[in-house]
Each structure stands twice: as structure tokens, then as C-alpha cells.
């Protein structure tokens, strides 16, 4: 939720800021020194501003889609962690897990520091194997993602479907409410009917993906074949496709709502541009004041926490070391890519194991 809020804030702050910087850079490069530059408010200036703004919005839309795809690839899935295909059967899962056990079992590690890492990685591999070997949990994982691991009360497919449908209903109800509020406040004015129609269509498609025993054709016949053309791009599961489509639909409508006025009414775009500049400056000032207040409060709290150790240098060093270890254990090692990298590093340290023997992600 916080990522979505930051993305929405970025859509209404960054394009106007970047447009101003890009226009200044454009004039600095394109217009020779000494020649007059178009002044704000003139027809030429507004025309340049409008074109640059459209380019910036489209570029930001493409970047948002790329970022969503990149995050999904970095998060990975259990199939990638085991190095098996999406259609793998139980025999293939067991065979692959036995090969990974020979490489990553903790008993094969001699040093204590490497043993902890190996145990953590091996436990994750075992979890991947157990989920994919269980038809019910595999069905739920493919369609709803890793959050199903925390649904302890769900043991059958109807249980998972019931919880999944409830989450879908809450998501689309909340999204429709946010879009309605944004439209009421004047942020998204154009194509209200098509916006909610697309949202409803996506909701129906998501319910279809959840209740269908097989993967949707859009994924198997269109999306994944396209991804296979891209070097090193993995195939997506239904829950990853849904996550990508959610991001695409939301950001696309925000982008179109900003491009629409620029294309239909240049004069209104000029007035909106002046108004947006003023609003952006006010928002930046508020964000700056909020950031400064948070920083001051954090420094004050840190000072209060450190007061008992102010005159004890040894205690201060010990506390810094513990904080460093805490950050490493709870932030770095929880990352899926780092976890897989640790597994590869352990494999390379053993004699007789060729480089790259670990399953491809």
C-alpha cells in the first residue's frame, strides 16, 4: 500500500518538475548563448512545455511498467529458486531437489559462519519443494502468491479460494474508492466510465485466473512467449501477471488523464501548467518541512536512547556492532536475490563443483 501511495504522489509531482528541468536544459543546449529564450507565458514557451510534458509523462509511464516488471523478476518465485519449469511434475521436483541437496546441505559446510547461511538457504529450498509438491498449496501459490503461506487456517482449495476472493473484493473496492475520491478532487477527470470499466474487467479476469484450474491463455500464449524472447527474462505465474496488470492499469489511467488535457486544449493546458507549478512548489515545501521535522524527531529519539552510553565508549562500540548485525540479518539476508547469491557462493567454495552449477533463476 505504501508503494502505491508513493507511486501516486510521484505521478503528481515528478512529471511537472522534470518537465521544467528538461525545458531549461533544452533551451540551454538548443538556443545559442546571447539569443533570446522564449519567456514563460508566451505561445512558444507553452507549446514547448506541452510537448516536453507529454514526452516526460510517456517516459515515466514506461519506466513505471519496467520498474514493476523488474521488481517481480528480482522477487522471483519458488520455481526459479529450484531451477525448474512452471509445468514441472513431482518427479522432476524431487530430482531437482536431490541435486540441490548435494550442493547445499548444511552438513557439507565446514565453517560455522557458512553453516548458518547454508542452513537458511537449505530451509528455503525445502520450503519451495514442499509447496510445489502439495497440489493444494501449489494451486494457491500459483494464483495468489507467497502470502498464502501465512494463511494457516486454509487447508483446502475452497478455503484458499474463499480468502483469495475476499482479498480481491477488498482490493478493487478500495481502488474504486480511491479513484472516485481523486476524480472528485479533480485529479482524474477524463474517461471516468472507461476507467471503471477497465477496473471491472481486470477484476473479472483476476477472478477467472483464481478459479480456473489451468493458467489463463493470456499468460501461456501471449505474455510468457513474449518474455521468452527477452534474454534472461523468466516466465511469470498468474499472481505475477495480475500484479503487473494492476500496476499497468492504474498508472496508465493516471498518465492518460494528464496527457488528455494537453492534447485537447492547449490554452487550458497553459493555465493548468501555471497552476500545477504553484501546487508543486507548495507540495515540495510541505514535503521538505515534513522531512526536516521527521529528521529532527529521529535525532532527538536517538539522542535519548544513547544518553546512558554517552560516556562509555566501549558500550557505544558494542551497540554499533549489534545494530550492524541486526541490519545485516533482517534486511540484507531477507532479500531473495541475496539469498540465492549466498547459495551460489557456498557451491563455488566446494572443490569439484563447477561454476554455474546452481539452478538458473
UniProtKB/TrEMBL annotation:
Domain J: 77-145
UniProt superkingdom: Eukaryota
Keyword Transmembrane: yes
Transmembrane feature ranges: 12-31, 52-68, 168-187
InterPro entries reported for this sequence: DnaJ_domain, J_dom_sf
Keywords: Membrane, Transmembrane, Transmembrane helix
Record-given protein name: J domain-containing protein
Organism annotation: Aureobasidium pullulans
Amino acid at each position: 500500500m505504501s508503494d502505491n501511495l508513493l507511486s501516486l504522489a510521484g505521478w503528481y509531482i515528478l512529471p511537472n518538475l522534470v518537465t521544467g528541468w528538461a525545458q531549461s536544459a533544452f533551451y540551454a543546449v538548443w538556443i545559442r548563448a546571447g539569443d533570446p529564450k522564449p519567456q514563460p507565458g508566451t505561445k512558444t514557451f507553452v507549446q514547448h512545455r506541452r510537448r516536453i510534458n507529454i514526452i516526460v509523462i510517456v517516459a515515466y509511464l514506461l519506466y513505471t511498467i519496467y520498474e514493476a516488471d523488474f521488481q517481480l523478476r528480482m522477487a522471483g518465485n519458488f520455481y526459479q529458486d529450484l531451477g525448474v519449469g512452471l509445468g514441472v511434475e513431482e518427479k522432476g521436483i524431487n530430482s531437482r531437489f536431490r541435486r540441490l541437496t548435494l550442493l547445499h546441505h548444511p552438513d557439507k559446510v565446514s565453517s560455522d559462519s557458512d553453516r548458518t547461511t547454508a542452513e537458511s538457504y537449505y530451509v528455503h529450498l525445502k520450503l519451495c519443494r514442499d509447496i510445489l509438491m502439495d497440489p493444494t498449496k501449489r494451486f494457491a501459490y500459483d494464483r495468489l502468491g507467497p502470502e498464502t503461506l501465512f494463511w494457516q487456517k486454509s487447508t483446502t482449495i475452497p478455503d484458499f479460494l474463499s480468502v483469495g476472493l475476499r482479498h480481491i473484493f477488498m482490493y478493487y473496492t478500495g481502488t474504486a474508492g480511491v479513484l472516485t475520491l481523486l476524480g472528485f478532487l479533480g485529479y482524474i477527470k477524463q474517461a471516468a466510465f472507461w476507467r471503471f470499466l477497465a477496473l471491472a474487467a481486470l477484476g473479472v479476469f483476476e477472478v477467472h485466473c483464481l478459479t480456473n484450474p489451468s493458467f489463463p491463455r493470456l499468460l501461456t500464449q501471449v505474455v510468457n512467449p513474449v518474455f521468452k524472447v527477452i534474454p534472461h527474462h523468466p516466465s511469470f505465474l498468474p499472481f505475477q501477471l495480475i500484479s503487473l496488470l494492476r500496476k499497468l492499469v492504474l498508472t496508465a489511467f493516471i498518465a492518460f488523464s494528464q496527457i488528455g488535457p494537453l492534447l485537447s486544449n492547449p490554452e487550458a493546458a497553459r493555465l493548468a501548467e501555471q497552476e500545477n507549478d504553484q501546487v508543486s512548489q507548495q507540495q515540495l515545501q510541505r514535503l521538505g518541512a515534513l522531512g526536516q521535522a521527521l529528521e529532527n524527531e529521529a535525532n532527538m529519539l536517538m539522542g535519548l536512547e544513547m544518553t546512558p552510553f554517552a560516556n562509555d565508549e566501549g558500550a557505544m562500540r558494542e551497540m554499533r556492532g549489534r545494530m550492524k548485525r541486526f541490519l545485516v540479518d533482517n534486511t540484507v539476508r531477507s532479500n531473495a536475490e541475496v539469498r540465492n547469491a549466498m547459495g551460489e557462493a557456498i557451491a563455488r567454495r566446494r572443490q569439484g563443483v563447477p561454476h554455474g552449477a546452481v539452478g538458473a533463476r
